């Protein structure tokens, strides 16, 4: 069973001790016309900010401390102290100051690793993978190198994202690549993805999902598939970031 919840970044597994809940956000009812006029729900507004924050820190000097922290969050277990320290390091970059202003309190941009991870993958995917490159499926491995360990609370989201992208690669890419939150192309992609998302939920589990979590999970899968399946793809572990400005707050 699948339920699209109004609570941001919450997923539970029935019959399992694995669960996470990050900063619940109670969204107001979403009106499409209001979204088109730029009036987003609180949850969508936070997703917009997190998108811009991730793109900002991802577009840093390739050999600098911020780039190193980005790689650490992307490549480490979400519950590890290393990932938590790296996420905190990102909050001290110039990005929050640029987005919020020097005279504002911006400690709320110190996102935990499980919330930030997928948006960093989205940023790297948009920055490194050509927009017109088709989604290529890698060889189906039993346990690929990027997969989080079974005891990581984010693993269920990771597996869900991989399943959705394999089932509907074009729609997944359209949803993740939409430049604006609640843009018509994003709405259309998610509407078409609903049956694929439902089919990817394992029997006996209930996942309470938000669009932010789905976007993050699919973005990570798209990035891994692009960099593993294509021999010319950019590696997250070897180079820096192409310059790009989009998703401005």
What's the short story on this structure?
The chain is mostly helical and about 250 residues long. It contains ten helices and four strands.
What would the keywords be for this entry?
disordered N terminus, two-stranded antiparallel sheet, single chain, mainly alpha, 249 residues, 10 helices, 4 strands, two-stranded parallel ribbon
SSE map:
Blueprint: E1 2-4, E2 10-12, E3 19-21, H1 32-36, H2 42-58, H3 65-75, H4 81-91, H5 95-100, H6 113-128, H7 155-167, H8 169-177, H9 184-200, E4 207-209, H10 211-229
Parallel strand pairs: 1-4
Antiparallel strand pairs: 2-3
Overall geometry: globular
Widest sheet, order of strands: 1-4
Strand percentage: under 5%
DSSP, total strands? 4
Number of helices: 10
Structural class based on helices, strands and sheet pairing? mainly alpha
Q: Please estimate the helix content.
A: 40-55%
Low-confidence stretches: 1-32, 230-249
| Straight-line N-to-C gap | 35 Å
Indicate the mean pLDDT.
75
- Major sheet size, sense and barrel closure: 2 strands, parallel
Name the helix and strand elements from N-terminus to C-terminus, one letter apiece: EEEHHHHHHHHHEH
Radius of gyration: 17 Å
Model description:
The protein has 249 residues and is mainly alpha-helical. The protein contains 10 helices and 4 strands; from the N terminus they run E-E-E-H-H-H-H-H-H-H-H-H-E-H. It has helices at 32-36, 42-58, 65-75, 81-91, 95-100, 113-128, 155-167, 169-177, 184-200, 211-229, and strands spanning 2-4, 10-12, 19-21, 207-209. It has a two-stranded parallel sheet. A two-stranded antiparallel ribbon has the order 2-3. Helix 6 packs across helix 10 (211-229). The longest helix has 19 residues, at 211-229. The model is unreliable at 1-32 and 230-249 (pLDDT under 50).
